[in-house]
Amino acid sequence: MLPINQIILGDCGEVLKGFPENSVDLIVTSPPYADSRKNTYGGIHPDDYVQWFLPNAAEFQRVLKPSGTFILNIKEKAVDGERHTYVLELILAMRKQGWLWTEEFIWHKKNCYPGKWPNRFRDAWERCLQFNKQRQFNMYQEAVMVPMGDWAKTRLKNLSETDKTRDPSKVESGFGKNISNWVGREQAYPTNVLHLATETANRGHSATFPYALPEWFIKLFTQEGDVVLDPFLGSGTTAQVARKLGRKYIGVEITEQYYQVAVEEMARENEQMSLL
Amino acid sequence: MLPINQIILGDCGEVLKGFPENSVDLIVTSPPYADSRKNTYGGIHPDDYVQWFLPNAAEFQRVLKPSGTFILNIKEKAVDGERHTYVLELILAMRKQGWLWTEEFIWHKKNCYPGKWPNRFRDAWERCLQFNKQRQFNMYQEAVMVPMGDWAKTRLKNLSETDKTRDPSKVESGFGKNISNWVGREQAYPTNVLHLATETANRGHSATFPYALPEWFIKLFTQEGDVVLDPFLGSGTTAQVARKLGRKYIGVEITEQYYQVAVEEMARENEQMSLL
DNA sequence: GTTCCGCATGAATCGATAG
DNA sequence: ACTATCGATTCATGCGGAA
């Protein structure tokens, strides 16, 4: 049976074998990036990453409903002066596995990590790859529409203050000129670029993604009561958001430490909610 | 000899064979997208795109200086409900050709209008792939610095103890050691995400990119007097920008129609400049 | 209640040095 | 030669406490 609203300690590749097929509506996850968390996840070498990931992807494909979606948040690192190609190879390999590579969303990290190097700038974006089992999948675009009344505010907020000061002419002319087109319309659809800051508040995990990231995809690809799975749960962000949005959640985490953090966070939130 | 400051009518794969090797400082171009300009470029089918592009890339590699850079502005189309993989395959194939895939910049198209498709949102970004011949290449980062955010003014007023000697975190970042470098600083280095509006003015070419795009890369990778090549010139944006910035330009365009537009634009600008 | 302001921190990368 | 470790470099945000 499907372990609804549970957080499970274990290797997702193994744990998922006990799940029935075609039972999950959305998989949204941020797997360990190659070689970057040596001390926590064992550090998969970039050259071995595809081979490590593929068996897991096969299980994801099995448990995902035909109408479901798989969102993979990932970014290749720089190795020996180049961007490594394991993410590109992973996409190609997953297509051979039967996945459809439907779309690539860009997460623009407004507060990216600082640094300076002679040959590259700071990395301010990550990929959110959308995979599907079939061309027809559930998508609730209206759930993530931006209200027109707030459109101006949100748009400018998304650009952030610094972006505005850096390119005032473009923002003002482009924005002011077009605003008349939107009068009378209620809501606008977003684009495939997400502007979110990483949350710097320590949640006991070195690589939490911001709540808004899973939130956006959960709203977009599921309805209330649907099942959301995060096979690399980390400190539990996806599960917390899914529950808050009235979705069923399943989280799998391999390290005892983060499993504990995730369980405690869920309990803490539970308590807070019962107090209200 | 290298045809400095010229626009040439012809197929770049052929035309470039007459150029000496190691003679160009920067190649920046936006090639015909697969299947999207059928009537102008003959419409390369997505499945044939890599095989069509590779011979051209080989010539680019030959004429590029060892210290030079190749910027390729490209985005895969959605074909049959999926993102096509020809761009991923092209990157892998070019690496086999000897190119280094140094970086992937994201061009975020700020003023893109919300559209409506049943299963995807409006595409608001394109790839700008950076390729190099060797790990050491010319990069003039100071030429593209941007104003610092407003936070800096208040932030640097009084530094906390942790700013001066911050404990190394889990990720072992030695942040905050030479905070004195910051005081009085007005500008910051940009990131690998470019926020540029698409230009609305259609200059008789179906895929013009905005002036700001080649401008940014020309400033970043060349100095005055350097040679900038656009092998798919289109209506001439790259050549115009290069000349304006005091770089030598070479443009190659295969279609008579766009070649004419490019030549006329250059002449028109020449006239305007002589009037000032 | 709002607004302001201080401040810790984050999926980094390169080059030199040591083993 | 080849790998492992270490030091140096650098922004911008959301949070929480205070006004």
Write a concise keyword list for the protein shown above.
homodimer; 276 residues; alpha/beta; Rossmann fold; 2 domains; eight-stranded mixed β-sheet; two-stranded antiparallel ribbon; 9 helices; 12 strands; 36% helix; DNA-binding
Structure overview:
The structure is a homodimer of 276-residue chains. The first copy, chain A, is α/β, with parallel strands linked by helices and 276 residues long. Chain A has two domains: 6-145 and 190-275, 3-Layer(aba) Sandwich (Rossmann fold), CATH 3.40.50; 148-188, no CATH class. Helices cover 36% and strands 22% of the residues of chain A. Chain A is built from nine helices and twelve strands. Chain A has helices at 12-15, 38-41, 49-63, 86-96, 151-166, 168-178, 212-221, 237-244, 256-275, and strands at residues 6-9, 24-29, 64-74, 78-79, 82-83, 100-109, 125-132, 146-147, 187-188, 193-196, 227-230, 248-253. In chain A, the strands form three sheets. Chain A has an eight-stranded mixed β-sheet. In chain A, strands 4-5 form a two-stranded antiparallel ribbon. In chain A, α3 packs parallel to α4 (86-96). The longest helix of chain A is centred in the C-terminal third of the chain and has 20 residues, at 256-275. The radius of gyration of chain A is 20 Å and the shape is globular. Chains A and B meet through β5, α4, β6, α5 and α6 of A and β5, α4, β6, β8 and β10 of B. Chain A binds a DNA duplex (19 and 19 nucleotides) through residues 30, 32-33, 36-37, 74-75, 77-78, 81, 109-120, 122-123, 126, 160, 162, 197-202, 206-209.
